[in-house]
Target: UPF0114 protein KM031_14170
Amino acid sequence: MSSHKPNIETRFEQGLFASRWLMAPMYLGLVVSLAMLTVIFLKELAYYAPKTFTLTADQGILAILTLIDLSLAANLLLIVVFSGYENFVSKLDLEDNRDRPSWMGKVDFSGLKMKLIASIVAISGIHLLKVFMEIGKKGSEVPLNQTQLFWMVAIHLTFVASGVLLALMDWLAGKTTKH
Model:
């Protein structure tokens, strides 16, 4: 009996394997969204920079937190684009590039999940901090709404708990010999 698979099965499997390229336009779309985020960052920077000498310390911190928030979101996008592409579509042939970040090619799906949830927790925490800093200030852009504040804290804690549970699941999976 021949050890070769039937021709139709081989073609079907090759087609399934080639279907990974359907993800490529999605990663390209994420690159476009990174460009959009860059424009938003520059708009925020252009808005706050001329006000540098008139901002209070708290207003300056809020402006900086806004910029940090945007840069964290951009970092998250890059991680998803690079790691997702390399894990699910094709390896990036950049071995001779000295500027290649050391984590590229080393972040597996589990690592990607952990970086994703850590970034979401950081972004959520920064947003929550910005709201907390505005509480009780005269002329605040954010009126105190206890129900909204409760839900923001609850959602943030849900992100934190999700991150801890994902880390625990990955740790348990790493300890298990059978997968």
